[in-house]
Each structure stands twice: as C-alpha cells, then as structure tokens.
Amino acid sequence: MAHQPLQFTLDRGSPVPLYFQLSQQLEAAIERGELAPGSLLGNEIELAGRLGLSRPTVRQAIQSLVDKGLLVRRRGVGTQVVHSQVKRPLELSSLYDDLEEAGQKPATRVLRRTVEPATARVAAALGVAEGADVVLVERLRLAHGEPMAALRNHLPAGLLDLDDEALERTGLYRLMRMAGITLHSARQTIGARAATLAEGELLAEPEGAPLLTMERTTFDDTGRAVEFASHLYRASRYAFDFQLLARS
C-alpha cells in the first residue's frame, strides 16, 4: 500500500553523515507507525530528487535499514517496510502480550512439550529436588510471520494442564492466569551471545549473529516458583527497554 510522502529535515552542516540522518529519520517514522508494515517507500531516484541528495546517499540509508531487518527490497514491488524493532519494557509480562499490544501479530509454533527430570540448575530455580519431574516447553515465537524468539520454559509438574493447541493460541502467562495462578514477581538476567548454527537456522539468522538472552524465574503470590525461562531473542528485531531512576 502507498503512503503520503514523509517530511525529513537534514542538516548539511552537521558532522553526522547525511545517509545516517536519513536512516535515523526513516527508522523513527517506522517506530512511530507512520510507515506501517507493508508500506512502500518511494524509489531511490524519487527520494533522492525530493531531498536533494545523491542516489548513493539514499541507497546507503536504505541499505542500513535493510541490514537491520526494517526494510526489504522486493523485485517488482520496491522497497517495503517489514516491521519495526520490538522494544520490550522490563516488567513482568509475556512476550506474546507485548507483541500483541505492539500490533506485531504474534504467533507460536510448539517445538517440544515433554516431562523430564530436573537438572541441578532447573531444580534450584524451581525449588524442587534434582531429578524430580518437570514440564519442558519449547516454542518459536513469531511476529508478522517472522521468527522473533526461541522460548524454553520449565514448569513444576502438575502446575497446570497444557496442550499444543492452547500454547499456539496464546501466551503462557495468560494460560497461567486462566488457571488461577497469580503472578507476583520474577528474578531476571539479561545477556548476549552469538548464535549457534542450529539457533541461527531456527531464528533465520546467520551462525554467529548476535542474540539477546533472558533467564527468568517467576513466582506466584505465595512465593512458589512457577516458571524457569531461558529465552533467545534476535538482536536485529528485539530490544529490552529500561527506565532508570537516580538514587536518592
């Protein structure tokens, strides 16, 4: 679908390269929803002429957003907006709910759902005996049909009834709430590492691509651990958003 021409303000006296100024303003327009998924950009010649820029400058700006996964070049169609990067607030919410709230059309593919003996690490997180039965759920979360994150969750056995259909229909936290579990707090660690070959194939990233990691142990209102999560997010598609307060 077409869109009304956007207005850009470029400072030719700035030390910031013109292609970078343009790419930043295009990215901001995508983040604000002024360029919705599926929107077409004008061709490079038209955009260069309207802004008084050279075609290589416009091409470099567009390529930087193609590299970020925000734009895609489609033969016979032109340059098209794919989606904005998801910025997730650091609060006790599920990825499914966050994507849905951001209009990202979440979908889930269940990769594995089984019962297995708890490793020492999982047992310590869930407060169960090592070797005790725990439920393992592995899922691929998608947004606009594209892989976004690989989710691995361990739950205490008997916590709630799960089936693949329910897990593909909605988020795990929503299923917990529907089962009468009141989520209260969580302990969370965020990191980063390079994707393995298998992880890259699952998440549509090359081997060695940067991935965000998140580990979370979630507790209900009685203090019981109800989930130990270990998630991988595509750094090109996803960011965690912090709000920091000054210490008094």
Automatic annotation (TrEMBL):
Annotated InterPro entries: Bact_HTH_transcr_reg, Chorismate_lyase_/UTRA_dom_sf, Tscrpt_reg_HTH_GntR, UTRA, WH-like_DNA-bd_sf, WH_DNA-bd_sf
Phylogenetic lineage: Bacteria, Bacillati, Actinomycetota, Actinomycetes, Kitasatosporales
Domain HTH gntR-type: 16-84
Pfam families (alphabetical): GntR (PF00392), UTRA (PF07702)
Entry-linked PANTHER family: GNTR-FAMILY TRANSCRIPTIONAL REGULATOR, MANNOSYL-D-GLYCERATE TRANSPORT/METABOLISM SYSTEM REPRESSOR MNGR-RELATED
Keywords: DNA-binding, Transcription, Transcription regulation
Domain of life: Bacteria
CDD domains in the record: WHTH_GntR
Entry annotated with the keyword Transcription regulation: yes
Listed name of the protein: GntR family transcriptional regulator
Family annotation (SUPFAM superfamilies): Chorismate lyase-like, Winged helix' DNA-binding domain
